[in-house]
Amino acid sequence: MRTPDASAPFLAALDRIDVPVRRALDVGTGTGLGALEIAKRFRDAEIVGLDVSPAMLEKARRLAPGVEFVEGDASALPFGAGEFDLVAHLNMIPFLDETARVLRPGGWTVYAFSGGAQTPIYVAPERMRRELERRGFTDFAEITAGRGDAVLARRGEGV
């Protein structure tokens, strides 16, 4: 059952991004809630939601008709290098190498876990930071909101 504050860490992380976002990817979009929230905050951006499940993508298209939804595998994203200014994940397995590949240098990534350590797919913020640092990410923020937490990080310019 979804709690009213389930998106709180995701929203809090998005609110900290204070640069223009031209193109954003919501990885593991499910019902499209994350993609919809990105579209609300970055109204001029092209938003893409990706999920492996055609049934979930049907639901997402009904929830967020202005978003492009694509069927695909998060472990092998069907996009070129550096295509996105923002790559977001709400309760999603962190395929870090793929995120680093499709995110442009200077772009932002968000990993949010709505129930904190109780989230079925959870990675502690300190581990996320360590793994992202290994891939050249910087400018970290660890965010707690509602019952969950999120990590926000910027891909280094020289990566």
Overview of the molecule:
This protein has 159 residues and is of the alpha/beta class. 28% of the residues lie in helices and 31% in strands. The chain contains 5 helices and 7 strands. The protein has a 7-stranded mixed β-sheet, with helices on both faces. α1 (8-15) runs parallel beside α2. The longest helix has 10 residues, at 54-63. The protein is globular and about 35 Å long. 43% of the residues are buried.
State the gist of this model.
The chain has 159 residues and is α/β, with parallel strands linked by helices. It has helices spanning 8-15, 33-41, 54-63, 96-102, 125-134, and strands at residues 23-27, 46-51, 68-71, 84-90, 103-113, 137-145, 148-155.
Please outline the helices and strands:
Blueprint: H1 8-15, E1 23-27, H2 33-41, E2 46-51, H3 54-63, E3 68-71, E4 84-90, H4 96-102, E5 103-113, H5 125-134, E6 137-145, E7 148-155
Parallel strand pairs: 1-2, 1-4, 2-3, 4-5
Antiparallel strand pairs: 5-7, 6-7
Helix pairs in contact: 1-2
Please count the helical segments.
5
- Which residues sit in consecutive blocks of at least 5 with pLDDT less than 50? none
What gross morphology would you assign? globular
Element order, helices and strands?
HEHEHEEHEHEE
Q: Which structural traits does this protein have?
A:
159 residues
